[in-house]
Amino acid sequence: MKGKTRMLKFKRHIICSVSALVLGCLATGASAQDTAPTTEAQTTEDGAIIVTASRITTRGFKAPTPTSSIGALEIANNAQPNIFTTVAQLPSLQGSSGATTNTFSTSSGQQGLSSFALRGLGVSRTLTLLDGQRVVPANIGTGAADISLFPQLLIKRVDVVNGGASASWGSDAVGGVINFVTDTRFKGFKANISLGETTYGDDKTGVVQMAYGTSFLDDRLHTAVALEYHREEGVGPGDFGEKAANGRDWYRSSTLVNTGQTNNGSPQFQYKDHAQSYTYSKYGLITAGPLQGTAFDANGNPYQFGYGNNGAGGAAGVPLKDAAGTVSGCFTGFCIGGDTSANVGVGATLQSGIIRTNFYNRTSFDLNDDSEIYFTINLAKVDTHNQPNPGTTQAGLTVQCANPYVPNSIKQACTDNNITSFRFGTVTPWLPNIRVNTERKQERFVVGSNGKFGLFGTDWNYDAYYQHGKETSDIKVHNLLLKARFTAAINATTIGGVIVCADPVARANGCVPVNVIGNQTPSASALAYLQPAVGAYQHTIQTQDVASLSFSGEPFSLWAGPVSMAFGAEYRREAYRAVADPYGNGTSTPYSPDYPADPLLSTGGGNFYAGNYRNGRGSYTVAEAFLEFNVPLLNSEQLGAVNLNTAGRATNYSTSGAVEAWKVGLTWDTPLDGIRVRTVRSQDVRAPNLNDLFGPIVSTNLPNFTNPFTNSTLTVSQNQGSNPGLVPEIAQNFSFGLVLNNPMWFPGFSASVDYYSIEMKDAIAGGPNATQLVQYCFDGSVPSACNAFNLSGANPYVNVGNINAASIETSGVDYEFSYQRSKPFGLPGNLVLRGLATNVRDFTTIPGLPGTVASQTAGQNSGATPDWKVLFVQTWSTEKFSLLIQERWFSDGVIGNQYVVCTSACPASTGNRPTLDNNTMKGMTYIDIGGTYNVRPGVQAYFKIDNLLNADPEPSPQTNTGLDVNPALYDTLGRFYRVGVRFNY
């Protein structure tokens, strides 16, 4: 039954796709771009085909895997300081990481990281290449390259392969491949200078790029150099409350509040704006007991806190003054309206500040007319900074009534009510805000040779190279609180008329008391005690060494034409080492002078208010070989031309053993003018990265742990973090599509429509606790759990990090068309229209653990995969000027597909299917305009305005009051102006 259902769904997809292709042909006047048809491959001077979707590089080859290309002119017209932004606009890219994401983070190191994600599968399942070569990862957590470190001015084309390509390129190419192709023979000089800022006067941006290429020795020795400097101030943060940075007025603390009603016909959750937590206030709030509802102003004076209500109007909430801290007339944990001055969500950076520098050189020497040797060097660095939140939220503190900082009126109230302490909450506005500085430095060297040679009467291409890459990442977090010291410092007493810390052990180790009530600036010595000047840090070095050799040619011919083949082998070693500060990592050895020993702090680490700073190291090696054929099966004027493209790759990982990837594809150039049919079936892999296998771990002892295999108890070490027993993820990719390429009856028009389906097994995802994990292995419910523990030997352990248990299923349809016309409507110049769209039909994640349920995230605008994502571009260019209009659109969606929407007569609300009164998130349309003017030969001025209508982001409410927007999908910066000048000689 399941197979029949899938076949019916597939037939519907194909019918809809064909209909959409016809409609696209009828609507070509509505969308745009400015390059040759992107459904076709790129051709070199000698007629060889360069197709990123394949390793075949011979004449006449057409890859069956859908590939979109962005040319140098498109890149220039989009006028972005980072080419990442241009590519990330393509609809098939969903959930990429950029400068506006990860700004809430302290220790991930992903701030300002420019990494792509295809099909919403995450950046770790998209392979990014530079001239067909791997690039050392820029972050231990993702294992992905940082595109901003590439030589952007020398990039002449970006190929986006929308489909599995592991058979051709290896691990990580589950969602697809993005290949940046540089101009390896560039001659001349070109430069780009641009300035920009938002309509709010922030994120001031400056870019200077230069490239120079020349040749010597009768054009046999060639060298090209590129230099780049890029600076962005960033945006934010806002302040406490609801005031976003520099006049932005869209933030309103949107929250899904819990009514607590699960079976009375009303929705359990309600969508509310202006939510206010009643567990803290800006300058302090007593949250439980007989003094509950007493707040303090900036001077420490008490007053009655302004509680909101349940959002339905009427009287404000009233504290029940009980030990639980409950409030009547509000929701669980939240009121609506009232005093929202302590909300911290908008106080996060909206975009990380960035300083980026880049040096690139490629030098080559022609051994003869057919072969060259070359050397490339890429030295690049990105510095970013962000603020994850203002102050530090402190709920549930205990303050003694005898504390000398407590106002006398409150001390008297304590006496009257026969209490000695009270529960207290604040956002500590008197503490300097956290600042995260992240630096990523790349050193990449490649030496290689490529060309062609004759063998057995045919021409062969070869490519050989060795690459060494080193990525150094430094995370330094300033003004980060030590939790145990904060607890000691706020517990003050008076000895000999002097206010001191009440804990004698803390006093002996430098504790300086602070006033947690009001907004009293602590002394320099108190701040130094709470927030060490050196702060938290993590220093990480990753290395990647790759040796590769491949060949491509046409060894023989069959009845329908020459057979093409490519084959090769590759060896790769990945390694990393991380060193963290002693307070974050923990240590049993003496501390350094910057981190003196303190008995209040745990030697197991984790002492800072936020983040995870740990030591770690690990490495693995990969040996693999691939073989690919293109076999012409039919070449008939009556029936058309049919080609079979098949490839296989055998890979051996030092950590998990052998794994195979393969693909089988067909293309049929039908006898109908310009129409081609293509389909691909492939098995693709994503191997666990260094962080998955060897990332930093936190170990704790579990005494009296039951071993179900022997029915005995023992003490085991529980390792929270990585899992060396992980194996590669396996994905099954399928696509089927139609291509219309420049037919005689519609010259200049090309279009394609492709259905895709990806089914991934053994996906790496969060695992259960130690007891559950061992039991899953024992009862056979999760076989992969058996790789995560060893209960025998002298040091038994259980790794409770990720395991290979989850499954992901996603499917949808890609659409693309372009149209070019000279002298449109009798006007001079050229008109180019281009449109791309992706419709995600399904994105199901199955955790694979007992008791868990599948989740559907297609159309969930709080995530990465809206139902529809569309890009339309129209350009009109003449010899003197060009104009561009671009529309970026994605469809309306939901907050979460798990919710049952109702306002009355609701079914019982459950953990898997909670009820909610409003589950909508509006889609968005962004309009960009730009233009160029040729001032003189070789000099071009340009402008660009992104988000012309200054569209505000839609709230993405959660069950807390964070920054409730989704920066991976919505523009949080607003209208952006950019001007610049280009030189090309």
How is this structure best described in words?
It is built from eleven helices and 51 strands. The chain is mainly beta and 985 residues long. The longest helix is centred in the first third of the chain and has 25 residues, at 2-26. 51% of the residues are buried.
Assign the CATH architecture of the largest domain. Answer: Beta Barrel
Quaternary: single chain
**How many whole angstroms does the radius of gyration measure?**
30 Å
Determine the CATH superfamily of the largest domain: TonB-dependent receptor, beta-barrel domain
Q: Got a strand count?
A: 51
Strand portion: 35-45%
| Average pLDDT | 90
Note the main sheet. 22 strands, antiparallel, barrel
What name is given to the CATH topology of the largest domain?
A: Maltoporin, Chain A
Which ranges are low-confidence, i.e. pLDDT below 50, for 5 or more consecutive residues? Answer: 1-41, 43-49
Helix content: under 10%
N-end to C-end Cα span: 65 Å
Number of domains: 2
Classify the secondary structure makeup into a structural class.
mainly beta
Which class of the largest domain in CATH terms?
Mainly Beta
Signal peptide: 1-32
Subcellular location: Cell outer membrane
Family: Belongs to the TonB-dependent receptor family.
Pfam family, one: Plug
